[in-house]
User: Fold this.
Amino acid sequence: MKVAVNQIRKEVEARIAFVTYNRIGSGQFANGLMQVNGFELYLFQNSDLSKWGCKDDKYDAWDFLFMPKGQKKQVMQEFAKSRKQKVSEIMSQAANLQDMDKVYIYVGQRGGEGIIKLSKKLPGEHIVYVMCDCQKETKLRLIKEYGHQDAEIIWCECGGQETMEKLVTSYL
Ligand SMILES: [Zn+2]
Assistant:
């Protein structure tokens, strides 16, 4: 869903975006615009309920654990492929990110490099990277490489669902 940020620009105090290729919380928020307390919140999350976009739960883990090796590998490859697609899909939906006052971006282990690359175009002072510490050095190096070393960083759990939820909720 593309949102026309410019049309509603004047009436609000701040425009804030949340971008993640996982879900925010348990998926209780709809994607798109949420107007609240003078803020415009734009949510861009993985809303197709992909297993990799969900919070790990016991059932999925057990399921995966007892898969034959070949199938396991295939599942991992499929996840990686659809995650990669999702990263560029979400970032293209979020084409108006340049107009935001603040953009929270979840950076995980897988798909993390891609999303850092895609955030290159945004002004660093508007970005808040929400990151788990998997591949921490690589992520920090990339962020620096793209000139965003001054961007704010919030460290979070793997998947970032809870932290992103807390961040959204803090505006409500
Ligand atoms: Zn992680």
The first strand starts at residue 14 and ends at 19. The chain has one domain: 6-169. The two ends are 22 Å apart (CA to CA).
